[in-house]
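Now for one protein, fold included:
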Amino acid sequence: MKTVKIWIRQKTLKAGAGKKKFPGGHREVSGITVIELVLILVIIIALLLIFKSQLIDLINTIFDKITSESAGI
């Protein structure tokens, strides 16, 4: 029975050998979490609100140029 426990422990250690462990035994998880996505969305929305008038002017200018040049086709 003791050899089975040692074998299981060795397999467990090999499986988690390449991953960092945090205090409390949790393994590091790579990828984007929900909190990071929410923060990115909040930043994008804030930038859109801050530069709203400049963006509207830019879009209007682009569409005006498209419509004026498309009349020549």
In short: Residues 2-70 form one domain. The chain has one domain: 2-70.
